[in-house]
Amino acid sequence: MFVLKNASATLVRHGWRTGAMAITAVAIASLTIFSNSVIDAAHTASTTTYNAQKPTAVIRPTQKTLSTRNGADSSWTKNHLSWENYTTYATAVQSANVEFSYTFTETIPVRQSSSIKAIKASTSTSADKTGGDLTWRSFYTLEAAQSNDFGRFKIVSGKHLNYKGQDKSSVLISQAVASKNNLKVGSTITVANPTDSSKTYKLKVRGIYEYVGTAQEGEGSDAKFAKDNRDNAIYSTYYTFGVNGLDISDGKGWSIPDLNIMFQLNSVKNYNSFVKAVKKAKLPRKYEVTSPSLEKYETGIQPLTQWASRMRTTRIVVWSAGGLILLVLTILTIIRRRGEIATAMLVGVSRGRIAWQFMVESLIPTILGLALGTLIGGVATPGVGMSLTSNSTPMHSTLIWMILGCGFAACVALAIVSTIPVITLRKSTLVKPPVHTPAPSTATTAAVTDKHADETPTPKEEAR
Questions:
Q1: Rounded to two decimals, what is the model's pTM?
Q2: For labelling, which of 136, 157, 193, 401 has a CA lying 20 to 30 Å from the CA of 355?
Q3: Is 10 helix (H, G, I), strand (E, B) or coil?
Q4: In this structure, what are the phi and psi dihedrals at residue 126, rounded to the nearest 5 degrees?
Q5: Pairing of β 233-237 and β 134-139
C-alpha cells in the first residue's frame, strides 16, 4: 500500500511527465503493430501467396519488336505465330514434363460498311493498307475473354457470348460504336474481309459492352489507326470466327490471323519450367515469354510492397526515437531525488520498498500505454492498411503476443533503470559526523598573551 500510494502521488504530481510517457508508449505500440502487419503482409504476398498463383503464360513479340509495328504495313503479319509454331513450343514443354491447359484468341482487322462505321482516329488511311478500321477478335473460352489484352469489359445491354454453342453470327460491339451507329441488341451489321472487300460477313449484335478500366497508350482515343482503338473491337466466339472461314494458315497480308495462345499452369514453379523449355526450343529473340496474370498480381501488390519498405524505416525511427524519449523521461523522473530516498531510509523504509516505488512509477504509464497502443493498433491496422495499400493487412494473434511480450520486457528494463539511484545510494553517506573545532593549547594561549603584553603601548607612546 505504501509503494502504490507514494507512486500514485508522484505520478499525479508530475502529470506532464506521466502523460508524455504514456503517449510515447501508445505511439510505439500502435505504430509497431501497423508497421509489422504491413511488412508481414508484403512478405506473405511476395512469397507464399505469389508461389501459390496459377499463372498464365503467353509468347509475344518483345517491346523492341512491337516498336517497329506499322499498322499500315501488312508485312508485319510475318511476326504472327502460327499453329505450327505453337505446336513446336507446346511439344517442348510437354517433353519437360510440365502440365498445362490452354485457351486462345485470334484477331484480324475487318472493313467497315454502311451498317457500322468505326470511331475515327487521328490518321485516316485507306483500308487497303490497314486491312480495315475495325478489329474482329474471337475468344476460345470465357477465360480468354477475361484475359483480353484490350482490357476487361462488362455487358451493359444484351447477353455475353455463348462459348458452348454453335452460333454463326453473334457478336459484341462497344457502347461507343453502338451510339455512333444507332445500333442496339438484335441489330444486323456487315463487315468485309481485310484483303478482299467483296467477301462480307453478316453478324448480329448479341450484346453491347463497356470497358471497366482505362485504355493503354495507343489503344484509346489516342490510337494512330482506327483499328487500334479498342472501342472499334468486335468480339465473337472462336466458333463464329472459324465458321466464317477466318482461321486460315495460307492467308496473305492482314488476312493472316494474329493467334495468341494463353497457357494455363498450375504453379509458379511450372511457369519457370515452361519458360526454360520454350527458350530451349529456340524461341527467336524477337519474342519473349511473359505471364499476364503474374504481372497483374505484382502490379496489385506494388502499393503494399512500397508501404512495407517505408514501414521498415519507420519502425527503426519509432523504436529509436521512442526508446530515447522514454529513457530521458525516466531519467528526469529519478534525478534530484537523493534527499527523498535518504529521508525515507532514515525513517526506516527499506531500500527494496523504495526501489519498488520507483519501478511502479515507471511501469504504470508505460504498461498502460503499451496496452492502449496495442488495442488501437490491433483495431485500426486492417482498415488503415487496406485504405493505404489496397491490400489486406490482417492481424495475427502471434504478432499481438510478440508486441506485448517485447513491450513488457522494455517496460521492465526502464523500471530497472529507475531504481539505479536507490541501488547506488550508500548508507554511510546518509548521516555525516559533526565537525569539532579543536581548543587551543595552554602554551599557545600563553604565547599569544605574552605577545599582546609586549605590544601594550607605554604611557609616553600613548601620549604621542
A1: 0.75
A2: 401
A3: helix
A4: -60, 140
A5: parallel
